[in-house]
Design a protein that fits this description.
heteropentamer, A alpha/beta (329), B mainly alpha (332), C mainly alpha (331), D alpha/beta (326), E alpha+beta (601), C: 331 residues, mainly alpha, MetI-like fold, 2 domains, two-stranded antiparallel sheet, 13 helices, 69% helix, D: 326 residues, alpha/beta, Rossmann fold, eight-stranded mixed beta sheet, four-stranded antiparallel beta sheet, 32% helix, globular, transport (chain B), MetI-like_sf (chain B), membrane (chain B), transmembrane helix (chain B), protein transport (chain B)
């Protein structure tokens, strides 16, 4: 499969009163056609900022992309004109956001909002757009889609709204769907519905997906490949089974360990990661996870580890081999 | 994480270290730092302090007795004009010129600051006290009490303020209250009566939203009494909006006093130079307005002072809002 | 919706009764009466006063006067004269022969309703509001879009001035500047049919509201700009213009609209100083004069009209609100 | 660990929130039936988990037990005293025995008070300690929940979410209660921090013999911490059982669906799992379905489900379920 | 630096914003495109029109006057204020009128005669008098008007002014509620006002051309049963209360007849064209006026704010505006304006009244002391900026009965001290605080602040100022119970006769004297003598003595006579100024006024 998106050395900073916050610090990854990439991390680790930076959706000021490239089909999203990137947003790369409540404009009808990308990118007239929207709403499982076009967002339940949001993102048949914590605000049963829906649509439409989440459970059944972020860095990336089966970075290990599992027989004590995620007021010259790391060695305080290959297609940014507890050479 | 310890400390030690290096800061202190970073608000504060100073030391600052009439020196132009449009030469002793009785406009303007300061603050204090308590009760207790307050506001909003002012001033003129502070006390009360309802409504709204916060439930859960919840928990947390609203109520009071003064209501003119309240900017504007063609300097100093003062309070109020309203944090 | 309207309108009745009651007590507690004239004028003699009091029923006990005003009373001929309940606002004591509704709503000969005193005030209020909206809303939008730039600061400063400078001070200066010095407009209207004569009163009256509108619009825009759905709109590839016009402004307008109704009421009712300065034939002036003259029915009539106006303004805000914001349902 | 001594008995607990209308005279036009007849026991020293989707009434149940919402009907018998109808000083006394930990660590601490004041306040209210003693006790409690005792003069906004939640725990512990309602205490926290708080709660339970009612929507976490689990749906408890029993033999179709929806962080297992996907959304609690509340989404629903409300019965020792089809 | 720039830019923007808003201000002729269909083809015709306001009746010059405030009522028998009378004087004319020297001269009546004991007054109307609509005006009309003024149903505010007509008081004060129609009719018939034809027969209707005689029975003192002479009555009947508004039109128009120009058909020099409340009143010449036809129209405007009116005058938007003290200095300084200022005596006297019921003013020496201690000249120069003339007596200069020799109680601090020494207080320091009550208007505030300063500086008395809302002030001064300690009032002549100054005001039975508790038997006797004496010269001597007695009581501190002051554009020529000018100068003889259109810029 050819790579459809390549992000290289992306850096994003925010200017605040306290100083410049280094939110994303040289993130690189790539996405193949039809592939699902899961990006996992705690809040504030820079996962949302990464994709927002890519699509140039971070508010500026205070945010600013300071370095890097985001090549979409070979064209750099970060340097193209406003006009060009507008043609990509919503048409070829579209997004689904976390909170389906606030992500819809409360005063416009669903039909209007969902058809907007069609008007902009496909130049459809109102009638055509309406048909297409109704078709799309049916596809995401909204009952009586024709009648609901004139409804307002508040007339939908949370789950339904998220379905509409997905319909809106997919209405122009994009090549990439970016889902930014799309299920976090939903109940477990609804979450399952949404994950199911996306899976089905992916198989049907064949788009690539970047799925951002902090919940390692949700993504396990969905992703092909995973990237774990911490402090604005990708600290581990691997195919999904590899990552869950053989996590190598202490942070990934900790994350997996802190999750209780339904299928566990006994009651083990949860692994907790002490301390707090960092707020990076300067670009760290050491491993940002070192202050919370059980494995940290002297080197961790002096040198920020780059992503290093640990097995084919499995990369980890840690000086310590967590299986042996020894420092990598 | 500015420092890089060379030894490997435990994570909690690091957290402690970073926390102990900064002094504890209440939200008030935070807000204060935000406030003093706001240039407009600081300018506003300086102006207010300046006028406060002028008001307190009016006796010492005024170059003349503000009641001293100077026969033959009426309508003198201000010092920077050689000859006024009325052909009279200026007198350096009267910097802002003189009014129709030959009284020093500068001195009168200085004394006028007192009324504006007091009329800005005192009714506001009454409004804040009454409005906060009623708003607190209505918001917290709800029910019929709340219902009555809300219905009462309908009536007050529909009610003609001016009629009320005029009639109160006229009917209570002869009473003890009417004479207190040259009639200012009555004015305070009238202003407060008309304005507390709006204030109560805002506090009520604030309380209604705070009431839903979990820390109020937490307080109930640990057995706090209603009074304690209202005054220890709800009030301090509504204080931000209350302060903002007070700062924005003050200029309203000053303008209202000016307008009432302009209509000839409010302050009773004093004849005793030892009185605290001798004249007000509103009354000075009233004097000046009739003579605006010939002697614009009569209306200029009080008009500019009123505008400056109101501007200062508005800037301060805006600054306070930015500093105290957490929702706006980060937008500046 | 219909039920809601009816309920709100019915609620006007107790409001009117309470407001009229308070007004009645207040105005009758002020010393002096409608026959007390300017001190330089000859005063009405006692006999005439007696006749007039009898004629207008002012010799009756206060509670009866109030009942007569609100419900009605039998006149000398034994005929029942209906009061407020029939929309009768009573006779003017100063413009004898005229009823309050005639004074306020009857246009001069050969003119239409817009030339009545109420019509004049309403027109001035509406113009001032239009001015406030036409300037205030774009100013607020631009200031918000250019937040923390010089444009933002300048408009903020003007807006703060607009809120701070009392409008009679501004009126005087603008008259001197534009009418006396620059001679761009006439001070004394030959006729209120000319557009130019409305300019100054409209601008001065509307300035404060304009300032408040701009401020509110700016704040509201800043809030809306941070909303998630704006990000959503951008992520759909909408042009910035569309994002601003379709997604930001409509949402930002909601809080602004809520002040506009009461603002209109305030502009129609609160213009007496402007009216006096420009010799404007509106009802704000009539109201202040009536208080001074103790023209009781006129005070009551104007107060009640104001009360109804304010209540209707608030009601229309609620209705407009429900149209603008589909989340609000009136019931 | 679990005794069979009943600490808290909840019987037919009902909480309806009236919907009021009217301009001058308000009248009730309907009610949100948030909790509609809930019964269960809590044993000494155990953790009873209460799960359900949002809006199912689990938080209301917790608050109604603590009398933060006065129940519409039913009884809450705690240590032999019926709390419903208890007023004034009597209720205040009972409050010392039962406390609550709240969901939102940001909203549950008064931002204008120092941490020391927050933790010490219950002591002062109940006249247990004076200002100075309260301060000392606050320091102790901070140490107990794993925070630096020197933090007493700090304000809540200076802490992270996890630390704040510890402060919330410390406040709940100040009165040395026997019973604590934990209302989704971890759902607002980051994953890595959730474990910290859960571990703390477990440690404290072991140390002080506390009894928890642990309310959450995250079934995996509830299962981890609880001894027994009650599943709520639309104001009623549909199933209650030992945690292993519940996981291994869920009887109610809703419980089954809920269990199947919980993701497991293992791609291998996830790939194999068959989910029961429920249709549609939870109906409105203002107008709940007749008979069995779950019938509108239930794959097994029959005519009887619309007509009759299923009895909450014990189908196996300690395993209660409310379903006609079981 | 940056904030300075900020201020500058913001001022600039504010200015440009307002400027742009004012752009359409210029009154440019508007072009109206009319579409005219001519025999099936459509043509566009361009018609240039000037704005409607600029094209009043043809090329007649217009005299633009700011009258100040809009009249409350324009009904001859109900009006009482100067601005109301100003309208009436243009539309109507009475039996007699005043000339520039305040002499009573013929109006609608060409002559009048008293019988030998002056208990009856006979007017003879001019022949062929017409209303502006061409209908006949005969004596019957005046009979109606005078009776309407007395009619209790009218309840006019000047009804009492005609009380010296025999029978008037009885009808006017009738207890209407308890009298039958017949009894009332009898009272009405008892009023001795009769229109007669040239043969002495009662007139039949309004169309009767030879109905030119009006006989009025008089009673100098209605309180006594005897008929006493009233030799001043021809002057009283020059007042607006006799103006002959048409009965049928009043009936047709109902209560609000006076609001419509349709019903204001009069016999005066002008016809009212439009009455637009608060905006303008427009008057055109009456071609049927017996004395001639004015050569100009009159437009009244109603700007109350004197500062605005002054600006408008300077802007050439008015031809005549009142000149107020605040603007005087500017006017005097201006080479053009100073020539346009017209300042001349007025018809009022103002004085401080001391309440003789309340200490310390119950003692005459105290009153005397205050009268001595008040500097009238300084009041005029400092307060009035010269717009007034100090006076020590009651009737102003220019009015019959003026006493040029009065010098008592002039400003003299020594005498003030002597006077106070004679009082029971002994000195000013021992006086209780004096409360000075006044109508709390803008102007009054400064005036009384000045007076308080004067009294405390000159006399060392403590003065409390007590501004009261104007109407409340009036109410206070109307009631002897609530009468303030010291207050300021004035009296303006209704008609130029000492009777109006003295008997109407100071007679112990008069309403005014009763309010102030003023009663002086000696004065009463003198005034009554004056009222009933036929010989004009002899009358004056009695009034003169009465006035001297009034001054002697030191009941009031006479302060000033007002002056009338107006700004009049130079192209308005031939104005006859009199102290009695009502609202604007020139209404005494509008025919003498011409407008030199060539001078108008």
């Amino acid at each position: 499969m050819p790579e459809i998106l390549q992000v290289q050395g992306l850096e994003t900073q925010f200017r605040t009163r306290e100083g410049v916050i280094h939110a994303v610090n040289g993130v690189s990854f790539s996405l193949k056609e039809g592939e699902t990439l899961g990006i996992v991390g705690e809040s504030g680790c820079g996962k949302s900022v990464t994709v927002m930076s890519m699509l140039r959706l971070i508010p500026s000021p205070p945010g600013k992309v300071t370095a890097g490239k985001a090549l979409f089909q070979g064209r750099d999203l970060l340097t193209m004109s406003d006009e060009e990137i507008r043609h990509i947003r919503g048409a070829q790369i579209s997004m689904v956001f976390q909170d389906p409540m606030t992500s819809f404009n409360p005063v416009l009808t669903i039909g209007r909002q969902v058809s907007e990308p069609l008007e902009v990118h496909m130049g459809l007239n109102q009638k055509q757009a309406e048909d297409r929207v109704a078709e799309m709403l049916a596809k995401v499982g909204i009952p009586n889609p024709k009648d609901r076009l004139n409804n307002y967002p508040h007339q939908f339940s949370g789950g339904m709204r998220q379905r509409v949001m997905i319909a809106m993102a997919l209405v122009c048949n994009p090549q990439i769907l970016i889902a930014d914590e799309p299920t976090t605000a939903l109940d477990v049963t609804i979450q399952a519905q949404i994950v199911d829906l996306v899976k089905r649509l992916r198989d049907e439409l064949g788009m690539a997906i970047i799925w951002i989440t902090h919940d390692l459970g949700v993504i396990a059944g969905l992703a092909d490949r995973m990237a774990v972020m911490y402090g604005g860095f990708i600290i581990e990336t691997a195919p999904v089974r590899d990552l869950y089966g053989h996590p190598t970075h202490p942070y990934t290990i900790g994350l997996l360990g802190s999750l209780p599992r339904m299928d566990e027989a006994g009651s083990r004590r949860l692994v907790s990661i002490d301390g707090l995620p960092p707020v990076l007021l300067e670009k760290p010259t050491y491993c940002p996870f070192a202050p919370r790391c059980k494995y940290a060695v002297e080197r961790c305080w002096h040198e920020n580890p780059p992503l290093m290959q640990v097995s084919p297609d499995h990369y980890s940014a840690c000086w310590v081999d967590t299986e042996t507890g020894r420092e990598r050479s | 994480m500015a420092t890089k310890p060379s030894v490997n400390p435990t994570p909690s030690q690091i957290a402690d270290l970073t926390m102990m290096t900064v002094k504890p800061r209440s939200l008030w202190v935070d807000a204060w730092y935000r406030l003093i970073r706001n240039k407009a608000a600081v300018a506003g504060m300086i102006v207010i302090i300046f006028f406060l100073f002028v008001a307190i030391f009016a006796n010492q600052l005024a170059p003349h007795n503000p009641l001293q009439t100077n026969a033959g020196k009426s309508f003198l132009p201000p010092a920077w004009m050689e000859v006024g449009p009325n052909g009279r030469p200026s007198d350096p002793a009267f910097f802002f010129g003189t009014d129709n009785l030959g009284r020093d406009v500068l001195s009168r303007t200085i004394y006028g600051a007192r009324v504006s300061i007091v009329v800005g603050f005192l009714p506001t204090i009454v409004i804040v006290l009454v409005g906060s308590v009623v708003g607190l009760l209505a918001g917290y207790k709800g029910g019929q009490f709340d219902n009555i307050l809300m219905r009462f506001t309908d009536v007050i909003y529909a009610f003609p303020d001016l009629l009320f002012f005029i009639i109160v001033m006229v009917t209570l003129r002869e009473t003890f209250i009417g004479k207190l502070l040259n009639g200012l006390f009555l004015l305070f009360m009238a202003l407060a009566i008309v304005n507390w309802v709006g204030f109560a409504r805002v506090v009520r709204g604030q309380v209604l939203s705070l009431k839903e916060k979990e820390f109020i439930e937490a307080a109930r859960c640990i057995g706090a009494s209603d009074a304690r919840i209202m005054f220890r928990h709800l009030l301090p947390n509504s204080l931000g909006p209350i302060i903002i609203l007070s700062a924005l109520t003050i200029p309203g009071m000053i303008i209202t006093e000016a307008i009432l003064g302009y209509l000839g209501l409010g302050l009773t003119p004093s004849t005793n130079p030892n009185d605290i309240f001798i004249t007000s900017w509103g009354a000075l504007m009233l004097d000046g307005q009739a003579a605006i063609n010939a002697q614009p300097w009569l209306i200029l100093p009080p008009a500019i002072c009123v505008s400056l003062m109101v501007l200062a309070f508005t800037f301060l109020g805006d600054g306070l809002r930015d500093a105290l309203d957490p929702r706006l944090q980060g937008t500046q | 919706m219909g039920k809601y309207l009816i309920r709100r309108l019915l609620w006007l009745i107790p409001v009117i009764i309470v407001v009229s009651g308070i007004t009645f007590i207040l105005m009758h507690s002020a010393p002096g009466g409608p026959w007390d004239r300017d001190t330089t004028a000859r005063q009405v003699d006692q006999n005439t006063q007696r006749i007039l009091n009898e004629y207008y029923g002012l010799d009756k006990p206060l509670w009866r006067q109030y009942v007569a005003y609100v419900i009605g009373d039998f006149n000398k001929q034994g005929k029942f004269v209906c009061g407020l309940v029939c929309g009768n606002l009573g006779p003017s004591y100063r413009m004898r022969g005229l009823t309050i509704q005639q004074i306020l709503f009857m246009p001069p000969e050969g003119k239409n309703f817009l030339y009545s005193r109420f019509g004049y005030s309403m027109r001035l209020g509406v113009f001032a509001l239009l001015f406030a909206v036409a300037i205030g809303i774009p100013a607020g939008v631009i200031a918000a879009l250019k937040q923390n730039t010089i444009i933002d600061y300048v408009s903020l400063f003007i807006v703060t001035i607009g809120i701070s400078v009392p409008n009679f001070v501004m009126a005087l200066f603008l008259i001197i500047l534009f009418a006396s010095t620059l001679k761009w407009v006439n001070i004394v209207p030959r006729s209120w049919d000319e557009v130019s004569v409305w300019v100054l009163p409209t601008v001065i009256l509307g300035f404060g509201t304009m300032a408040r509108t701009a401020r509110l619009m700016r704040g509201s825009m800043l809030e809306v700009m941070r909303m998630d759905y704006i990000r959503t709109a951008r992520s759909k590839g909408l042009a910035e213009r569309v994002v601003v016009l379709r997604h930001m402004i409509k949402n930002s307008l909601i809080p602004v609209v809520t002040i506009l109704g009461p603002a209109l009421a305030a502009l129609v009712t609160g213009s007496f100083i402007i009216e006096t300065m420009f010799g404007f034939p509106g009802m704000g002036r009539a109201y202040v004069t009536a208080i001074g003259q103790r023209d009781y029915s006129m005070i009551m009539g104007t107060t009640l009209i104001y009360a109804v106006l304010i209540a209707l303004a608030n009601l229309s805000v609620d209705i407009v609100y429900s149209f603008l914001d589909p989340r609000i349902r009136l019931d | 660990m679990t005794s069979t001594e009943v600490l808290l008995q909840v019987r037919d607990l009902v909480k309806h929130f009236p919907i009021m209308r009217g301009t001058l005279i308000q009248r009730q036009v309907g009610a949100v039936r948030a909790v509609d007849g809930v019964s269960f026991d809590v044993f000494h020293g155990e953790t009873l988990g209460l799960v359900g989707e949002s809006g199912c009434g689990k938080s209301t149940t917790g608050r109604a037990i603590l009398q933060l919402y006065r129940p519409t009907s039913g009884s809450v018998i705690f240590e032999g005293v019926d709390l419903v109808g208890l007023k004034g000083e009597d209720l205040r006394k009972m409050r010392r025995r039962m406390q609550m930990i709240f969901q939102d660590p940001y909203a549950s601490l008064n931002p204008r008070m120092t941490v020391g004041q927050i933790i010490g306040e219950p002591l002062i209210i109940h006249g247990i300690a004076d200002r100075k003693e309260a301060q000392e006790r606050a320091e102790e409690l901070l140490r107990l929940v794993g925070l630096n005792p020197a933090y007493t003069n700090r304000y809540p906004h200076e802490f992270s979410g996890g630390q704040r939640q510890r402060v919330g725990v410390a406040r709940a512990l100040a009165l040395q209660p026997a019973f604590i309602v934990c209302d989704e205490p971890i759902s607002a926290l980051d994953v890595s921090v959730q474990a910290q708080v859960v571990n703390l709660l477990e440690d404290l339970q072991a140390q002080m013999g506390l009894t928890y009612l642990f309310i959450a929507h995250d079934l995996s976490m509830v299962r981890h911490i609880s001894n027994r689990i009650a599943v709520m749906y639309l104001g009623v408890v549909v199933e209650l059982a030992d945690r292993h029993e519940l996981y291994n033999h869920p009887l109610h179709p809703y419980t089954q669906a809920l269990l199947s929806a919980v993701p497991i962080p293992d791609p291998v297992i996830e790939a194999r799992r068959q989910r029961i996907i429920l249709k549609g959304d939870v109906p409105s609690p203002i107008n709940p379905p007749s008979g069995c509340r779950f019938r509108t989404r239930c794959p097994l629903a029959d005519t009887i489900c619309a007509e009759q409300r299923p009895e909450f019965r014990e189908v196996a020792p300690g395993h209660w379920v409310a379903c006609h089809m079981v | 630096m940056r904030s300075k720039l900020l201020v500058f830019v913001s001022v600039l923007i504010l200015a440009s914003m307002v400027l742009s808003a004012c752009q359409p201000a210029a009154a440019t002729p508007e072009t109206i495109v009319q579409t005219v269909v001519v025999e099936g083809e459509v043509r566009e015709v361009v018609v240039t029109a000037t704005p409607a306001a600029a094209q009043p009746e043809a090329k007649q010059p217009v005299l633009r006057v700011n009258l100040g405030s809009w009249p409350d009522i324009i009904d001859p028998q109900k009006s009482s204020f100067v601005n109301e009378i100003a309208h009436l004087k243009l539309i109507y004319e009475g039996l007699t009128k005043l000339d520039g020297q305040l002499n009573t001269v013929p109006g609608a009546a060409e002559k009048w005669e008293y019988n030998e004991d002056a208990t009856e007054l006979t007017f003879t109307l001019r022949k062929g008098l017409k209303y502006s609509d061409g209908t006949i005006l005969n004596a019957k009309r005046f009979e109606y008007s005078i009776l309407r003024n007395i009619d209790p149903a009218t309840a006019g505010e000047y009804a009492a002014i005609t009380d010296n007509i025999a029978g008037a008081v009885a009808w006017r004060e009738a207890d209407v509620a308890n009298l039958s129609e017949e009894e009332l009719q009898a009272l009405k018939d008892g009023v001795e006002v009769k229109a007669l034809d040239l043969n002495g027969n009662p007139c039949t209707d309004y169309e009767q051309e030879d109905c030119l005689i009006l006989k009025v029975g008089l009673d100098g003192d209605p309180a006594t049963p005897e008929r006493e002479p009233a030799p001043f009555m021809h002057t009283v009947l020059s007042l607006w209360v006799t103006y002959p508004a048409k009965e049928e039109l009043i009936a047709e128009g109902g209560d609000i007849w006076w609001t419509s120009s349709k019903y204001h058909i009069g016999n005066g020099p002008f016809i009212v064209k439009t009455l637009e409340p608060f905006v303008r009143g427009y008057f055109v010449p009456n071609p049927n006026y017996w004395a001639g036809v004015p050569t100009y129209d009159i437009e009244f405007s109603y700007i109350t704010d004197s500062a605005v009116a002054f600006e408008a005058y300077k802007n050439n938007e008015f031809d005549i505006v009142p000149l107020v003290a605040e603007d005087l200095a500017v006017v005097q300084q201006d080479p053009v304006l100073s020539k346009e200022a017209q300042i001349y005596p007025g018809s009022c006297t103002f004085a401080f009244y001391m309440n003789q019921d309340k200490p310390p003013f119950d003692e005459k020496p105290v009153r005397e002391a205050f009268a001595y201690g008040t500097n009238r000249e300084a009041w005029v120069t400092d307060i009035l900026q010269g717009l007034g003339s100090p006076t020590l007596t009651w009737i102003p200069k220019g009015f019959p009965g003026y006493d040029p020799n009065e010098t008592r109680y002039g400003f003299d601090l020594e005498k003030a001290k002597e006077a106070i020494a004679k009082s029971s207080y002994g000195s000013f320091e021992n006086l209780p605080p004096i409360k000075l009550t006044f109508s709390g208007t803008a102007r009054n505030r400064t005036r009384f602040e000045w007076l308080a300063a004067q009294w405390s500086q000159n006399l060392g008395v403590k003065v409390e100022l007590d501004p009261v809302e104007p109407t409340a002030y009036t109410a206070l001064t109307k009631n002897r119970e609530t009468l303030p300690q010291v207050f300021y009032l004035g009296w303006c002549a209704d008609y130029p006769d000492p009777q109006n100054w003295l008997s109407v005001y100071w007679m112990s039975t008069s309403e005014f004297a009763r309010r102030y508790g003023f009663a002086n038997a000696e004065m009463d006797a003198l005034m009554k003598k004056g009222d009933t004496t036929l010989d004009p010269q002899e009358r004056l001597t009695y009034y003169d003595q009465a006035q001297k007695l009034l001054v002697d009581t030191a009941a009031v501190i006479f302060m000033v006579n007002n002056v009338n002051s107006y700004l009049v554009k130079p192209w308005v020529k031939g104005i006859v100024f009199t102290p009695q000018d009502a609202g604007w100068p020139g209404d005494v003889d509008p025919l003498s006024i011409t407008i030199d259109t060539s001078m108008i810029p």
